[in-house]
Write a structure and sequence with these properties.
Strand order of the largest sheet: 1-2
Distance between the termini: 61 Å
Largest sheet: 2 strands, antiparallel
Strand content: 5-15%
Number of strands: 4
Helix content: 40-55%
Order of helices and strands: HHHEEHHEHEHHHH
Length: 248
């Protein structure tokens, strides 16, 4: 993974707020090289291993609702570059034209299969393609849509020094982000003014202490967070079932 020279960065990133993060990463060039090697090899192997899963999920999505299997959307990655992210479609066709670009809990645009895909984060699997092409990494700031990047503070721009990621400490801490936003009158405004700054606090801290070991720990914590969420929901369903039985 190549870190550009300071003079070659986009003008909106060559600021005093970004410089400390850049200087810190500049000292870790070898780790960045290993990070890209890890991304390249593991994403390639996983794409081969998970190919049967791709086929099964693609069939399930196509059967569940009209529209394509994949969801493609403009996102922002390293140095502010625009790319089209790969995700399994979890919403009805043209969902972006039927509401906010942020998804809330119980969003009526989410399909039946989409609910399951989101629960276990299976909709993220196609992003292995983006990792292979170098648009993303396994760990890094989640790629935002262009409209939200325009609201970045000068310091937040530092997160664009590295490729966007599938997971991060912020993703773990805000895995139930949809629940936070479900009661908001203006979802976009609440996301930009409250949620985004909190997520960016975690992203900037992770960037400041960047190391391969820290990223491996983040990947492991992500797996545990998904499994823990499933356990909590199962307990909640069991408790609800007991209450119904008692009432009966």
């Amino acid at each position: 993974m190549v870190l550009k020279k300071w003079d070659d960065l986009p003008e909106n990133m060559k600021t005093d707020a970004v410089r400390p993060y850049y200087d810190n990463l500049k000292k870790k060039i070898f780790s960045l090289f290993l990070k890209r090697g890890f991304d390249l090899i593991i994403s390639f192997l996983l794409l081969i291993i998970l190919s049967p899963v791709f086929i099964i999920l693609s069939f399930a999505i196509a059967r569940d609702s009209k529209g394509g299997v994949f969801f493609r959307q403009k996102r922002v990655t390293q140095y502010g570059r625009i790319f089209y992210i790969h995700k399994f479609r979890t919403m009805v066709s043209n969902a972006e034209n039927k509401g906010s670009q942020v998804t809330i809990k119980n969003d009526i645009r989410v399909t039946k299969v989409g609910i399951k895909l989101r629960k276990y984060r299976l909709d993220e699997i196609p992003q292995l393609i983006d990792i292979l092409f170098g648009d993303m990494s396994f760990v890094g700031t989640r790629p935002e849509v262009v409209k939200y990047v325009k609201d970045y503070t000068p310091e937040m721009m530092a997160t664009l020094l590295l490729p966007a990621g599938i997971t991060s400490e912020a993703s773990i801490q805000f895995k139930d982000e949809d629940r936070i936003l479900e009661t908001a009158d203006n979802v976009d405004n609440v996301y930009v003014t409250k949620v985004l700054p909190m997520k960016m606090k975690y992203n900037l801290e992770s960037l400041d202490r960047f190391s391969l070991l820290d990223e491996l720990c983040t990947m492991f914590k992500t797996i545990l967070a998904v499994l823990k969420k499933d356990d909590i929901e199962n307990i909640a369903h069991e408790d609800k079932g007991e209450e119904i039985s008692k009432n009966e």
